[in-house]
Amino acid sequence: MADGNTLWHGRFDGDPSQALRELNDSLPFDRRMFREDIAGSRAHVEMLCEVGLLEASELQEILEALDLVETEIAAGEFEWAPSDEDIHTAVERRATEITPSAAKIHTGRSRNDQVANDVRLVALGEIDSLTEVIGSLIRALLVRAEDAHINGWYLPGYTHMQQAQSVGLAHHLGAYCWMLLRDVDRLSQARQRADVSVLGAGALAGSPLPIDPSVVADKLGFSSVFNNSLDAVSDRDFVADLLYCLSIIGIHLSRLGEEICLWASSEFNFIELDDAFSTGSSMMPQKKNPDVAELARGKAGRLLGNLTGFLATQKGLPLTYNKDLQEDKEPMFDSCDTVRLTALALTGMIETLEFNAASMKAGADSPYMAATDLADFLVERGMPFRTAHSTIAELVRQSLDSGDDLVSLVQTHEHLGSEAAELLQPGVGSRRNSHGGGGSEAVAAQLEALRERVGNLS
Ligand code: ARG
Prior knowledge:
This protein is mainly alpha-helical.
């Protein structure tokens, strides 16, 4: 005869093996959902009372027991029992110790709909918190962009990691703001799909009891309720959606991290990191390392791993609930924590770093960076762009081959002359004022649009 410790021992003669318990138990990681689990139980028992399945006095006792359980867990005073397989069994076991009425908590409910609902509540809370964290990073970038714009700072813009055209630093930082604003949009779309209550789906097929899932949904603040109990207990698309959002955010943070690593290098020397956001070398005293930025780059790997791993977990699952789905929580928690911490650290790094405007300017003021502007000068005077391109390319080659100064070559060129040579002067990039371009007027308009979008975030 089994020792009777588990919730399901009734039909078993023998006890579960140690290995099964260790593999099967999700308590070590799902205890993090205790608030959501208890909130779900509160809503469920209140509904049971409303539909006549619980006496008002029983409801009262159960609610008080749930309050006590929550307080005990929050205070770290909860005594976990070896039979507590997961957070659901632990809460129910303890509530039943406090009041025998709690043996009715699980009326018309299964852990299958319970866990899916808990994970949805966690996802909603995480999305709200991550949206704030990403919002703060966008704000930090925007503050630096505004400041860079006022100071008129510019740097070489790159394609293929080759210096291409000079761009305003505000334009460059603004690009990351737009990237991250898309992430905020994506999170809010993922939120909509998570925002569906599934409590009341039962193990898989609903219940003969007069339960009312829409009452539970309302009490928990969900916007809608499931339509198909089979889908409800087995759907974890919302977890994959969130992992995808977090992977894209991870990629964006990684790209920003890589940019910071490059900029902080002695070769670029575009920025100086604050001591609070850099580390030293245990061997080389001169080093100041951009570890936060490197980790932002490195963490993208695990975020992608969490997404692809969980997609693979789901792909072969028949309806409905299968224990494989217990694998939803660790990647989701890990990705949320990883993005939160990485974004927080990057925000601090962005807020405190110093731009080395002189180094940026030195790189951007090379006359070769104005080659496209020279071609555009000829186009403005009626020359087809292809001809203009090869004319300027020829001049650049001549200058590189002969070592002759490009400015004097331009000055003496029959189609160019001193007006064109003006374009080789520092700061020419500020003329590129086409829509969304890097010119100072276009960037001013862009910053205005960014301010509005960022203002709408909170
Ligand atoms: N710990 C489980 C999970 O995370 C809860 C659901 C268990 N359901 C079951 N029928 N054994 O998915």
